[in-house]
Amino acid sequence: MAKKTFSHRAEILKRVLDWVNHGQYCDFGRFMVFGKVGVSWEGDKEDPEDVYLDLEDSVWKTEESKASAEIMEVCSQLEADVDRDNARLHAKQRTSLTIEQGPTTESFIGRWQTAWENLSPQAKTLLRKGRERALEENPEPIENADQEKVTARDDLSELLDWHYSEEVLAKLEEIVRRASLLDVVETAKIPSESVEKYFEEAHRCFLYGFPIATAVLCRAVLEAVLPETLDPTNKIRNEMKDSTQTRYYKKLTLEARKRRTLKGDCEYCKSEEQPYRVWNAKDHSPDCPVGIIQAGNEAIHDVKQFKEKYPGDKAEELLLNTRKVLIALLTKQKGEQCS
User: What is the Cα–Cα distance from 306 to 297, expressed in whole angstroms?
Assistant: First the structure.
């Protein structure tokens, strides 16, 4: 059974980007040609009279020319691999505290040895002949001991463009898949600007696959919307001025249950046995605002623990439950006036 594809554009764009990275494209201004094809034209390239594509694989007619084409393809791929590694390195150096070593001559030789093993006998023979001719013309070895790193491209903006283009396209399929999980959000009340902003950015982090940021922003959404909808005059907050923020949100959650703004119950919130303990997000029901807020706390203060509790796409549950709470709180209740 074929795997379901959420973004056919992602697959098309990945192929196009690969051709661009290998220089296998021709830009005519009004249109472009991509792929391993021979391209020729008549007239001005910006406005050609005719364009000709040679699609014949048999363009390499002799065994030697076929071997030469194979070698060119391997060299092109090796160069692209070096560019990709350098691009990733430059991007990481600017966004990470961990310093990594770039592609070295030693690693390049290792890749070349692997490529050599996969070459056809004809291509190997042609390479040997080329090496023998090169040694005859220049028997002295080329010294380049000072070059510690292999770099195919030096243009920083080009390298960063390479890296982030591939990164965004790699995420596109998952972005569309995650977005397809979300229903249209409909609320009767208009939220404050802060709730709206936190809500949008939580979704962007979720779509692009940043679970820690998603959890933190889900917390921000609820910490903003709970007082806004349940304690707009700060009456409850003033009555609890000596209490922690967590107990305040617990009080607001119980108030929402009491008003039936939020359905169901959270057994942990109802319990008063250990009101001052450090709450574990998993102690609460999945759709409990206090549990979601605590998950955001864990994301900020204990990343390792958060990753253990919310591996993979588990942050999806936090977002979906945050949406449920938000919609409930912003839905007009009987006898209420919409803001």
Answer: 9
Which element (helix H / strand E) includes 48?
strand 47-54
Q: Rounded to whole angstroms, how far apart are CA atoms 226 and 219?
A: 11
Residues in the chain: 339
What is the pLDDT confidence band of residue 193, given thresholds at 50, 70 and 90?
very high
Sorted by sequence, the CB contacts under 8 Å of residue 47 that are 6+ apart come out as 29, 30
Higher-pLDDT residue of 235, 186? 235
Q: Enter the pTM of the model.
A: 0.79
Per-domain residue ranges of the chain: 1-24+61-137+150-180, 184-329
Q: From CA 207, how far away is CA 172, in angstroms rounded?
A: 9
What pLDDT is stored for residue 141 in this prediction? 55
Residue 179 has pLDDT above 60, yes or no: yes
pLDDT at residue 148 above 50? no
User: Which residue, 75, 69, 33, is CA-closest to 54?
Assistant: 33
Helix then strand then coil, % of the chain, to nearest 5: 60, 5, 35
Indicate left, alpha or beta for 94 from its phi (over 0: left) and psi (-120 to 50: alpha).
alpha
For helices 193-207 and 211-230, give the axis angle rounded to 10 degrees. 160
Q: 22-67, pLDDT tens digit by residue?
A: 888 999 988 999 998 889 999 898 889 899 988 765 445 677 778 8
Given a cut of 70, whether residue 265 has pLDDT beyond it is yes
Distance CA 270, CA 232 (A): 23
Identify the pLDDT of residue 147: 44
Contacts of 107 (CB under 8 A, 6+ apart): 150
Contacts of 11 (CB under 8 A, 6+ apart): 5, 173
Cα(123)–Cα(10) distance, integer angstroms? 34
- The one-letter code for the residue type at 120 is S
The model's confidence at residue 279, banded by pLDDT at 50, 70 and 90, is low
Which CATH number applies to 184-329? 1.20.120.330
Looking at every residue in the chain, the average pLDDT score rounds to: 83
Helix (H) or strand (E) holding 71: helix 63-95
